[in-house]
Amino acid sequence: MKANMNRLACFLVSVLYLCLPFALGAQDLSPEIKVRFLALGDSYTIGASVDETERWPVQLSNSLVERGFVMDELTIVATTGWRTDNLKQAILDANLPKHYSLVSLLIGVNDQYQGYDKNWYEPRFEELLNMAIDLAGGNKKAVFVLSIPDYAYTPFGQESNEESISKEINVFNNINRSITESYGITYINITRISRKGLTNPSLVATDGLHPSGEMYSEWVSLILEKISIENITSHSNALPYKFELKVFPNPVFDSIDFILSGELTGEINFFIYNTSGQLINTIKSTGQPVIRYNTSAIEPGIYFYNLITSKGESIQGKFLKI
């Protein structure tokens, strides 16, 4: 009788587990989504003349946290005065991992300001865009490009030939937009916001040239409209897998096997999370076809796993401990 009751309990728990996605909202079911954000650019990305908290990548990160995301990493590769070639060299020197779930690119104003033409800018911008895609693990959905702001609409720009500045900025933006859209990547036009700098001086920083924190806030609002949750969470689809993963048994009592088949090269990491998004275990493997995880010490409930290869490939799923 007792054995039958136990089997019935296991059956009911299994049914509940299978039905949970329909009974609960996605936010209730999923662990907190961890974001690795890489921002590539120049003075506009590093936030010249504003406090660190007012930089647009920092404001965007904080906005994502407010929406339930967890910022696992924010990396800014940007310096005032950088051209496309300077940014490329900095990326190479940094030897960045190819694991970012969100990558932004904003570059070109210094190429224009220093007198370089479209024939110089075009191939270098495209090369940087490909580097950004690579750093996102090959996932184009995780990349977005910002247009170049128009500094003609600042007190500094008014001291120069503002008409010429705007014309050249338009040429550069036509190039970066055309290339970006040809790759199927999200393009966000913040230039129109920058052109409010003269009518609303509060949008310009105290140096009379760069955006203020208030203008950066407007950029962030637009970015949040243009990028979707899919952009941030679809890193698992970045590359075609050269291996398969099976999980058995599921539901699980005392141990679960992660069974890998196919091309197993380099280090593979398994991260195990509870429903609160807390990391409870990390398992490392190099070429092992079966990774066994002892579940006897964890409480009954739903757990999530995230497999990440050394190439940035990622597979996520869940299992039930009963």
Features of the shown structure:
single chain; 322 residues; alpha/beta; Immunoglobulin-like; 2 domains; five-stranded parallel beta sheet; four-stranded antiparallel beta sheet; 12 helices; 38% helix; elongated
Q: Can you walk through the features of this model?
A:
The structure is a single chain. The chain is an alpha/beta fold and 322 residues long. The model is unreliable at 5-31 and 236-241 (pLDDT under 50). The protein folds into 2 domains: 34-235, 3-Layer(aba) Sandwich (Rossmann fold), CATH 3.40.50; 239-321, Sandwich (Immunoglobulin-like). It is built from 12 helices and 12 strands. The strands form 3 sheets. It has a 5-stranded parallel beta sheet with strand order 2-1-3-4-5, sandwiched between helices. It has a 4-stranded antiparallel beta sheet with strand order 9-8-11-12, with no helix packed on it. A 3-stranded antiparallel beta sheet has the order 6-7-10, with no helix packed on it.
Low-confidence stretches: 5-31, 236-241
Q: Given the helix and strand composition, which structural class is it?
A: alpha/beta
The top level CATH class name of the largest domain:
Alpha Beta
Assigned CATH architecture of the largest domain? 3-Layer(aba) Sandwich
**How widely separated are the two ends?**
20 Å
CATH topology of the largest domain: Rossmann fold
* Main beta-sheet strand count, sense and barrel state: 5 strands, parallel
Topology, number of strands: 12
- The level of helicity is 25-40%
CATH superfamily of the largest domain: SGNH hydrolase
